[in-house]
Amino acid sequence: MTIFREPMLFWEPMLLFPLLALLIPVGILIGQHWQRGPLVSLSAGAALGVVIYLALTWSSFTVDYYPVYPYSTVETLMLVAGLLVVGAILLLGALALAFTDALRERRRVWAIVQCALVYVSFVGMLGFMLEPVRFCGELPSGTYCSPPDVGRFALFAALSLAGPIATLAYALLAQGRAAAMPASEQPEGLTI
């Protein structure tokens, strides 16, 4: 008795996505050379992943001579979705470091604001996936793509960038405060 099984063309590349979680330790190792560097490197990586995703998505809107929808191949779709997933994973790592640092420094308002803005970022990222900005369909004459909804794209882009920019701003401000503080000559509690 043989069981017919379809090839798993779509799920095989998806098995590599859990390996992307290893980007968090790599980002932390890259930033180990300076104070609050891991937070800066993770936040910058998250912002860069989201910005590249937005740039690729916007460039697909400006080209009208595609014979088919620009993300019609599995490889292209996986690349574009992978960039957004990389940004989301790095954003989670940055949030963990920023939240810990803000609570350690007794800046609870910053911690709450960062959590809220990262939540807003994930809402924006899900918006790109659940509410397409451009609709494409098959007609007898070929593939037709409607013009993109620029307002929806701008809203989702602003929401998606809110968290990475907030964590990067916190990291840079905290790094600037640490550099501006004078180094004490004596350890605290030491009397002469």
Task: Give your account of this protein's structure.
This protein is mainly alpha-helical and 192 residues long. It is built from 6 helices and 2 strands; from the N terminus they run H-H-H-H-H-E-E-H. The chain has helices spanning 11-14, 23-30, 37-62, 74-104, 108-130, 150-180; strands at residues 136-139, 142-145. The protein has a two-stranded antiparallel sheet with strand order 1-2. A hairpin with a 2-residue loop joins strand 1 and strand 2 (142-145). Helix 4 runs antiparallel to helix 5. It is elongated and about 90 Å long.
List the main descriptive attributes of the protein structure presented here.
mainly alpha, 192 residues
SSE blueprint and pairings:
Blueprint: H1 11-14, H2 23-30, H3 37-62, H4 74-104, H5 108-130, E1 136-139, E2 142-145, H6 150-180
Antiparallel strand pairs: 1-2
Helix pairs in contact: 2-3, 3-4, 3-6, 4-5, 4-6, 5-6
Residue share in β-strands: under 5%
Residue-averaged pLDDT: 77
Give the biggest beta sheet.
Answer: 2 strands, antiparallel
Separate helix tally: 6
Low-confidence runs of at least 5 consecutive residues? 65-69
Order of helices and strands: HHHHHEEH
Which shape, going by the Cα principal axes? elongated
Order of strands across the biggest sheet?
Answer: 1-2
Helix content: 55-70%
Task: State Rg.
Answer: 22 Å
C-alpha termini separation: 88 Å
Structural class: mainly alpha
Total count of strands:
2
